[in-house]
């Protein structure tokens, strides 16, 4: 059987610093399209790359932002993704719920943990997820079958909420990004059942160790070199891990110089990583299936207690660290030479 590789894209708008600074405001389409000189280097680049290599992906699309953006700018984005042949599933950032209140600026100054699912009451989580399900209906989309929480925040209550609303699949866990502290949810790979929901975590791995201490990373395009990703895919196949989940965002394919994303340039390192990954998957279709997460789990959602932690060598991770530091510094220098465009 082929190892299924699911590239998952959290597709969301940004608060843009509005909670901290009254002069700022949330940013909608530019956080997804990431236009650079009238060319979409975010969503547009990704869709073009996936089309060129025959890759199907899963876009986890955020919906609670509708409390702020009354003209519903995410609707055409979701439709564009579906029309391109990809899965659109549900993503929720609870912080957008504060915009239901006219005095949201005052509330934001005193609120704590606005964007957390961990320790959120069950009924609150249910209401947020049901808002997303209703939004999908408004957009003419099928009810979502998979869910991803904002910031990969999770606890047992979230899975109870997902079970209550009838969402069978989730990808809420990336241990290196957020650790709930509950060992039952410290999941690195594979398929796991929690409260009747099948959790397929973002693959987490070790990129270096010192004695018994292992440094953890989750498999992202922005934080992992192509060489490391290829090694992990080969090791996952050898370990018979059925599904590998990779995480990315549209805005990771640009550099930006301000929270309003008015000064931008293409991020050639992350773009090249995605191109090389998609080309690798296309060239190795006999061993790997590049597909959406729902497609993968609909084929086989068999769960197991196996929770394999993969690793890569320091010889691969050190060059990646150096490349990112150097290129990020160059990107900031290049951005500082650009004039801001009108927002």
Short structural description:
The protein is an alpha/beta fold and 343 residues long. 34% of the residues lie in helices and 19% in strands.
Describe this structure in words.
The protein has 343 residues and is α/β, with parallel strands linked by helices. The protein has a single domain, classed as TIM Barrel. It is built from ten helices and 16 strands. The protein has helices spanning 30-33, 43-53, 74-83, 104-110, 122-138, 156-165, 226-238, 268-283, 293-299, 314-336, and strands spanning 3-11, 35-36, 39-40, 58-62, 87-92, 146-149, 169-170, 192-194, 197-199, 204-210, 213-218, 243-248, 254-256, 264-266, 288-290, 310-311. The radius of gyration is 20 Å and the shape is globular.
């Amino acid at each position: 059987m082929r190892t299924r590789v699911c590239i998952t894209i959290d597709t969301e708008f940004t608060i843009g610093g509005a909670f901290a600074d009254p002069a700022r405001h949330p940013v909608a389409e530019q956080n997804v399209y990431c236009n650079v000189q009238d060319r979409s280097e975010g969503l547009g680049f990704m869709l073009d790359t996936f089309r060129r290599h025959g890759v199907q992906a899963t876009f986890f699309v955020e919906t609670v932002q509708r409390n702020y953006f009354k003209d519903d700018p995410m609707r055409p984005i979701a439709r564009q993704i579906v029309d391109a042949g990809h899965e659109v599933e549900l993503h929720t950032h609870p912080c957008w719920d504060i915009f239901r209140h006219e005095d949201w600026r005052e509330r934001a100054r005193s609120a704590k943990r606005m964007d957390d699912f961990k320790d959120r009451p069950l009924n609150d989580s249910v209401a947020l997820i049901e808002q997303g399900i209703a939004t999908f209906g408004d957009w003419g989309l099928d009810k979502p079958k998979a869910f991803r929480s904002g910031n990969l925040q999770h606890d047992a209550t979230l899975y109870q909420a997902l079970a209550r609303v009838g969402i069978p699949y989730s990808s809420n866990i990336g241990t290196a990004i957020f650790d709930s502290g509950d060992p039952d949810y410290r999941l690195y790979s594979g398929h796991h059942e929690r409260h009747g929901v099948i959790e397929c975590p973002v693959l987490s791995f070790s990129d270096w160790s010192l004695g018994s201490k292992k440094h953890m990373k989750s498999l992202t395009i922005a934080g992992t070199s192509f060489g490391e990703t290829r090694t992990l895919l080969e090791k996952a196949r050898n370990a018979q891990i059925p599904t590998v989940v990779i995480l990315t965002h549209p805005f990771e394919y640009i550099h930006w110089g301000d929270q309003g994303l008015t000064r931008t340039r293409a991020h050639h390192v992350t773009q090249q990583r995605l191109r090389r990954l998609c080309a690798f998957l296309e060239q190795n279709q006999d061993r790997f299936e590049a597909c959406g997460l729902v497609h993968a789990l609909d084929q086989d959602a068999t769960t197991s207690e196996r929770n394999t932690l993969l690793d890569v060598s320091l010889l691969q991770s050190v060059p990646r660290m150096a490349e990112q530091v150097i290129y990020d510094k160059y990107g900031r220098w290049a951005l500082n030479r650009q004039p801001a465009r009108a927002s």
